[in-house]
Amino acid sequence: MKRRKIYLKRYEVENARKIIFKTLEDLGFFKNFPSEVVDTRKSLWRTTKNPVYAIKSVPEINISAMDGIATCSLLTK
Questions:
Q1: Has residue 13 been placed in a domain?
Q2: Residue (of 36, 59, 60) closest to 49 by Cα position
Q3: Do the domain assignments include residue 66?
Q4: Is 36 left (phi over 0), alpha (psi -120 to 50) or beta?
Q5: How many domains in the chain?
Q6: What is the mean predicted confidence (pLDDT) over 61-67?
């Protein structure tokens, strides 16, 4: 099987940050939408208006396996 060579374009951190925030702004992500209470079972694909914090951290130290913004590599070609 022949190996494919796929490379994503690399950006400097500040430039990538500007692109991400501009895209989010264009999509209306930062608009001040009204809030509502939604049953957890109906919350798939919804976004929280405010930060959500756990009552108790597990583990009890400041570490994070995932931090930042998730992207879909298919959309970054």
A1: yes
A2: 36
A3: no
A4: beta
A5: 1
A6: 68
Q: List C-alpha distances in Å: 31 to 9, 25, 27.
A: 29, 8, 9
In a domain, 62, yes or no: no
Distance CA 34, CA 4 (A): 47
- Give residue-wise pLDDT tens across range 4-42: 777 777 888 899 999 989 998 998 888 887 889 999 899
Q: Global pTM?
A: 0.41
CB count in 10 Å sphere of residue 20: 14
Contacts 24+ apart (CB under 8 A), 64-71: 69/20
